[in-house]
Amino acid sequence: MTRILSCFSNSFGPLGVWTAAENLRATGLTHLELALRGHNFGGLIIPEESVVTEKADDATAQKFVEHLAANQAGVSGCNVGGANLLTEEGLAITCNRIKFAAKWFQVKICVTGAGQPTSPEEWTVISKNLNTIGKTAADCGITLALETHKGPTQNAAAMLRTLESVNHPSVLLNFDTGNIAYYNEGMTPMDELKKVAPLVVNVHVKDNRGRLEDWYFPALGEGGAVDFTSIRETLDAQNYQGAYTVELEGIGGEPEPGLEERVNRLRKSYEWLETCGY
After folding, report:
1. How many CB atoms lie within 10 A of CB 156?
2. Is 44 left (phi over 0), alpha (psi -120 to 50) or beta?
3. Sequential DSSP letters for 83-130
4. Which helix (H) or strand (E) holds 31?
5. Which helix (H) or strand (E) holds 16?
């Protein structure tokens, strides 16, 4: 089986997507999951100017597409999350990012969070908006993959409730192997994946120490809490065809690793996946 081994562009941190494209092949990985927004959470800060967003003009977007091609960097999907899904503005931003991803990168997968509603009323709004986003994705030939984040998708039971509520065939799951332990005490990604595997269309492969809210996401194989062989075997049994996207968010409190170390960690991760049968 030929598997798509991808790299979330956030793994290059503040160096951004242009640098990610230039150095991807040195890691052994072949594709990028492109962030279409900045990031500011936990131990990872990426300014918006380091990524190519839906606000880019045609000349900038075309130049970046050419940059990807020149560096033989495929695109496995785009990450379009981050907007406030409780608002009409957030809904519009997310839909526009999906349309941008379809136009410039011809992707079949877009990843987003499902928000963090604090009341039944807020969840009703988000559920409705996710259904609308699913319709936009479907119109673009894209499947929306909901990321493993706190709240509506933080574990398998929550994921299943959310998909039932959203009720759109183009809204499925991105399963994050590192975020299960980060958001849930006493749960393992292997057990949770088995409950939702048929609904998974994208995977973030991320390691950690298995501790609650512990910002420790090193090279794969160096955390010890994720059985990557079991993850692969579970998805092989479902004939999973999506990408395995390495996501390295670093270690809380460490200094900026820099390009050489980031590439080194990604290369180690690729080699670890090889030993696990990927």
Report:
1. 23
2. beta
3. S-TTSHHHHHHHHHHHHHHHHHH--SEEEE-----SSHHHHHHHHHHH
4. strand 31-35
5. helix 16-23
**How far is it, in rounded angstroms, from Cα 79 to Cα 74?**
15
Separation of alpha carbons 98 and 76, rounded Å: 14
What backbone phi and psi angles, to 5 degrees, belong to 206?
-145, 135
Domains of the chain, each with CATH number or no CATH: 4-275 (3.20.20.150)
Instruction: List, for residues 51-110, the tens digit of each pLDDT value.
Output: 999 999 999 999 999 999 999 999 999 999 999 999 999 999 999 999 999 999 999 999
To which residue do tokens 């706190």 refer?
Answer: 150
- What is the C-alpha to C-alpha distance for residues 240 and 224, in angstroms, rounded to an integer? 24
Neighbours of 147 (CB within 10 A): 18
Q: For residues 193 and 199, give the distance between their C-alpha atoms in angstroms, rounded to a whole number.
A: 10
Which residue in 268, 245, 273 sits closest to 35, CA to CA?
245
Question: CA-to-CA distance for 119 and 186, rounded, in angstroms?
Answer: 25
Check if the beta carbon of residue 218 is closer than 8 Å to that of residue 209. Answer: no
Structure-block tokens of residue 105: 């990168």
Q: What is the SS3 assignment for 186?
A: coil
- Measured CA to CA, the distance from residue 220 to residue 267 in angstroms comes to 10
pTM of structure: 0.96
